[in-house]
Amino acid sequence: MGMIARLPHSALGMLLLLHLVNTLGKDWGSAGLVVALMTVGIAVGAPWRGHMVDKHGLRRALVPSIIVELVVWMLAPHVGFTLLMPLVFIGGLFSLPVFSVVRTSLGVMTTGQNRRSAFALDAISTEMVFIIGPAAAGIVATQINTSVGMTAIAIAASGSGLLLLWLNPPTSSEHPGAVRVRDADAESAGAEVAMIASAPAHLAMAEGELLTAGLKSTKARVARRGRSFKSRFGWVSAGVIAVFIAASGAGLVLSGSEVGIVALLDEHGNSGQLGIVFFFWCFSSLIGGLIYGSLKRSISPIVLLLAMSVLTIPMMFATDTWTLAILSIFSGMLCAPVLSAASERLTELVPEKRRGEAMGWYGSALTGGTALGSPLTGMTIDAMGPGAGFLGVGILGSAICLAALFVQSLRRRRAMARVLASR
């Protein structure tokens, strides 16, 4: 179901680019601007759509997306450039929340190692979608017509929404088909109870004296002011932010690598062999996802992203299509594991009632990193050549990971110091 629902959107970006360049006669810069507007719409809309799933349930949340996707992509081939820009932004804003729904559903249908395997298989299916979708878009645009292709996407996207509406996969443990597990709230509450029970009695007495001295009223005022924010974003923690960093870093490295691959092949006059490199790159991710899904324990997504960033750098030494394809295998094998590990970790950290919104923010972080990686790599390539694109994005991705690991290390040390001090 996830594969079917993702296919129209995986083809949409390529088809929109080709429509703007070939049908409307626009330059690549203008075409990229329109696709960027759609990407921004998706990034803004994903958390909101995920929150609607949490608040109103899957079926009520899907209805606006089904209607808007059908109308927007039916109209898009028949309007000019000026009207197309706000139209694609609206389409992105109301984009079907496939990512949030599928990952949230898998989170409540599986536990433990089964959850890791499920997320890995979902990442693998996503790789297959992004092998099929853009290629199909290119064939339709060149052999038939971009207008026909966008009309087909409108029907397919809304049809996918109706399929989700009909199947109604569980998005909470109260729904049929879900596995009841302790959520992050219960686990954190249990940890707090254990800490309080083991605390020395004099600490509790000191706290009582402080409260009676006047801190109680101060805390009450602070609590009132922060209650609204906490009820809305109380699920956000340092661990959740680390997952979002991993997602945005993965998007940055992947989009930068994609631009580098296209630029390097174009420099050698081998643009027609792009499919060879993409096949090796995506297929290695599929294999990596299978391996990660079979592991007995999880690995930090930050660590996996660091390895992927470092292994992206050797791609700068490619001299032709085949060396580039072979060098892409090493970083490609870590793509699906990074996304699988991040999804698994987010599911463990976020309470069930907030997972739809959290997955939406996760998708926005991934989209934001993707949107940032392409122009940064493009500027590096313009200044220093195609090979430097892989070097730049690899170093930047590694720097993000090292900074995140350093901050995590500091937090652990401070937490340990507080525990020792309390004893």
From TrEMBL:
Listed transmembrane segments: 33-50, 62-81, 87-106, 118-141, 147-167, 233-254, 274-292, 299-318, 324-342, 362-381, 387-407
Signal peptide (UniProt feature, chain positions): none
Matches recorded under Pfam families: MFS_1
Cellular component aspect of the GO annotation: plasma membrane
Membrane topology: Multi-pass membrane protein
Sections of the chain in a coiled coil: none
Protein name: MFS family permease
Source organism: Paeniglutamicibacter cryotolerans
Lineage: Bacteria, Bacillati, Actinomycetota, Actinomycetes, Micrococcales
